[in-house]
Amino acid sequence: MAAKDFSKMESQRWWVSSHQVLFIICCIMVQAPCLRCKIVVNCTNPNTIALLAALENVMKLYSIRPVMNLSTPTNISMYFTLYGILGVEEKAQLLNTYIWLVKEWENEFFSWDPVQCGSANISLPREMFWSPDVVINEFMDENRSPTIPYVYIKHTGKVRDANPVRVVSSCNLDIYTFPFDVQNCTFTFNSYIHRVSDIRIILGKKVEDILKRSISVLSTEGEWELMDIKSRRFNLSAPDQGESNPYDELYFYIVLRRRATLYVVNLLIPSFFLITVDLFSFLLPPQNADRSSFKMSLIFGYSVFLLIVNDLLPVTGSTIPLINVFFAICLALMVASLLETILITNLLVGSSNFRPVPGWVRVLVLRFMGTLVWLPQKSREDKIILNPVARETVCPLVTVERQVQTGEPGKMWAEAGDPALAELRNLSNELQSIRLHVAQHVDGNQISQDWMQVGYILDRLLFGIYCIFITFSFIVILSVWSNYLK
Asked: I want to staple 227 with a disulfide (CB 3.0 to 4.6 A). Which of 56, 211, 255, 323 is the partner?
């Protein structure tokens, strides 16, 4: 008796299943307007085996889009959760991320009564059901994430396909403001084959919820920080689009910001310290050779520093980062300060061999520029100041010589003979020669002092220009960085 009942039940189930398949095929072929409703499969027992047996014949139709009328588009509800930011390759313009992608759609070929079949949901192998060919346009590499072999099916006919995806996507990276740059990368989801009349992609969750969920589960604490996620659906059904863009597209904009602490500590602060040391090196005496050698050592050290940190800088052929301009300015200022030191040192050390200071240099530099940099010109002493002993010795001898030459006899030399007078004349000539020699020496020292004063004034003036240029350059660069951070 039991065997007869079992065979009868199997024959009834075969009859129902075969008629359901024929009904579905006829509905697809005829495309009647009334066939929008779903087909309800019947379970013989409220258990999983009976539900699977009822769905077995329906699953044979996995190769076609699950709609009763082929003119009816299938709505694909999509959203994702950004689980990890694995890295950014500036040279290749690639963004490497790890996402949890969820796709949901309605399968009109089946639905069941959860009470009759004993279950409201069931997970079945992915290969047994039709799945949409939705891809990411920016995908640049194969997906090396784990494969999920199952899809989740609800009793209403809704199919939920959730799987992890390692996305290596192209992104137009703008590294001009590195290391304070903010990148905006795009994920474009669309069907590779089906047009908008077949598949429509809609957003399955609010963007605010996607962002909140992504920030809460984001596991990577590396160089990049997730700032925002935006979405936009390209409505191809609008009249102005026509058939030029026949595919439905859903855009996601991933806004990332680089964590700049590492680069500030390793790049900007050392450069600022080195340029500050070079600035204070102007306090060293310019006539001393130690100042130029110190600046040469500083330039050599800065060049080695740039070679070491070269690996930390992004490499791209499109734009030059602003930080590279900052480094170039620092190096150029150090070289300019070394050249200024060489010029001033040569002017101060070799001033004794120069000609007298020209009049225009005396007016422009010693007077105007000296007043500008608070180094006024020193007063000149053209008179030869003799000590009291020399004055007392020379004056009587000159007086006697004048008295003898004029024929006026003096009282103290009245009885002197010709040899004494000749001796006085020789002594007077020698004193005159010494006086001329001393006068020439004083004039040479005055010329040297004038050129040294010119060197000191130029050194202080160039130091002021150096400070102004450094301040202006740093203000401009910091202003550009701060504007991009807003």
From this structure: 255
Residue 99 has a pLDDT of 94
Q: Which residues contact 55 (CB under 8 A, 6 or more apart)?
A: 41, 110, 112, 122, 124
- Concatenating the DSSP letter of every residue in 217-268 gives H----SSEEEEEEEEEEE-TTSTTTTTSS-S-EEEEEEEEEE--HHHIIIII
In this structure, which amino acid lies at residue 404?
A: V
266, two tokens: 């390793």
- The 10s digit of each residue's pLDDT in 429-474 is 777 777 665 655 554 466 677 777 777 888 888 888 889 988 898 8
- What one-character-per-residue DSSP string does 87-119 give? EEETTTTEEEEEEEEEEEEE-TT-EE-HHHHS-
For 102, the token pair is 């969820």
pLDDT digits (tens, 9 = 90+) for 272-317: 999 999 988 888 887 776 788 889 999 999 999 999 888 888 876 6
Q: Please work out, in degrees rounded to the nearest 5, the angle formed at the alpha carbon of residue 484 by the alpha carbons of 479 and 486.
A: 100
Going across the sheet that includes 158-170, the strands are 121-125, 150-154, 158-170, 94-106, 74-89, 199-203
